[in-house]
Amino acid sequence: MDLAFAPAVATVPAPARRAGWIAMAVLLATLAGCSTTPERGRQPAGASTPSGASTPSGASTPSGAEIARGRASWYGPGFHGKRTASGERFDMNALTAAHRTLPFGTRVLVRNPQNGREVVVRINDRGPQVRDRLIDLSRAAAAALDLLQAGEATVVLLEL
């Protein structure tokens, strides 16, 4: 037998190679799932809004695009200090809200068409748990819209 024609490197069987590639793909998918995503709805200071408007302080102004219209309610004392679905502690005195589908960190303008009041809230929780409601507001956001006494009102959600 002539050793001059023997392979210099041992070859790995095809099933083993395939298993190695599958393991690498699973590892990469797992690591990608651990990464963070940027908060939606936020813009750097001085950046223009989708409508092209920008305030001197860099705060964004609403683009006017309506996201949804429906009933809003508020929640507070019974949940104050407890963990929200996003993992942060609920602060009923912060301008936050719960929405079923908007991504955590999204900022939306909530308008009460009955009195014209508006407030910008950040989505940090999931809800509302009541079927006919669109959004659950923190106590502070509800106070800004003047719906504490009524408990609920029709609101319009607008993009920022």
Could you say which structural class the secondary elements and strand pairing correspond to? alpha/beta
Helix-residue proportion = 10-25%
In terms of per-residue confidence, which ranges show pLDDT below 50 for 5 or more consecutive residues? 38-60
Helices, by number, come to 2
Distance from first to last alpha carbon: 78 Å
What's the mean pLDDT score? 79
- H and E order: HEEEEEHE
Calculate Rg over CA atoms: 25 Å
Number of strands: 6
Shape: elongated
Which strand order spans the largest sheet, edge to edge or round the barrel?
1-5-2-4-3-6
Major β-sheet annotation: 6 strands, mixed, barrel
Please render the helix and strand layout as text.
Blueprint: H1 14-33, E1 66-75, E2 96-99, E3 107-111, E4 118-125, E5 133-138, H2 139-144, E6 152-159
Parallel strand pairs: 1-5, 2-4
Antiparallel strand pairs: 1-6, 2-5, 3-4, 3-6
Describe, in plain words, how this protein is organized in 3D.
The protein has 160 residues and is an alpha/beta fold. The chain is 16% helix and 26% strand. The protein has two helices and six strands. The protein has a six-stranded mixed β-barrel with strand order 1-5-2-4-3-6. A hairpin with a 6-residue loop joins β3 (107-111) and β4 (118-125). The chain starts with 13 loop residues before the first helix and ends with a strand. The model is unreliable at 38-60 (pLDDT under 50).
